[in-house]
């Protein structure tokens, strides 16, 4: 059997988020369908319906938008049946282009936060792990052949952590990306092929990482949507100032979802073939993806 690493990006438009983050969730193939079924049930429990019926996704920027928290705080926690009724009405009015009522705004805000909690709970229940690389948003790509044709170091470190995990399990891993832009995706595939065929480290790591990435539309994959939520929470709620992760946080995300991230991130004591020993973590900070070195989180 094998593991699937569902990957997405956060903050790469350099507009609102404090960092660039690439990463996601790894889940065993045998757990993927139970995980998806749990998310489908959680949507009905939270919203009274499945979001895809309303052309909605479990995007972190949507579920945990500042407005959702503001709406949720408009009243005390609603009883489950009332929340589902009003949240479903909110979604229906969205399709009908009608303004929701105050109760419907409140219910939808509470349902969104409840759903985000359910995603993390389902990740834990199904043995999923979080992997991610964090990069400062101020980093600028140099004008060089290497920057164009080789994987950035944050991508390499992300693959490194996934490799260590797979090697310890003696199981193969597949990479599943959110398909966004065909041209950019093709370029990334070319960079990965160069890494896995032209470098000694890449060749070695292809023993466990299958170097043929898959691309899926996020609206068709709940697992990719869960990856989006996880890295959004990393961007806004996971900090270790001693390593340079000191950009502003959103306290409501840090308090509610920071502990989940610390619990779910991959952690392992690694011994390399050369005998070097160290602790490896799934979330890593890379100050310069075009330079040398990283700082583990």
TrEMBL record:
The protein's name: DUF3800 domain-containing protein
Organism per entry: Dyella flagellata
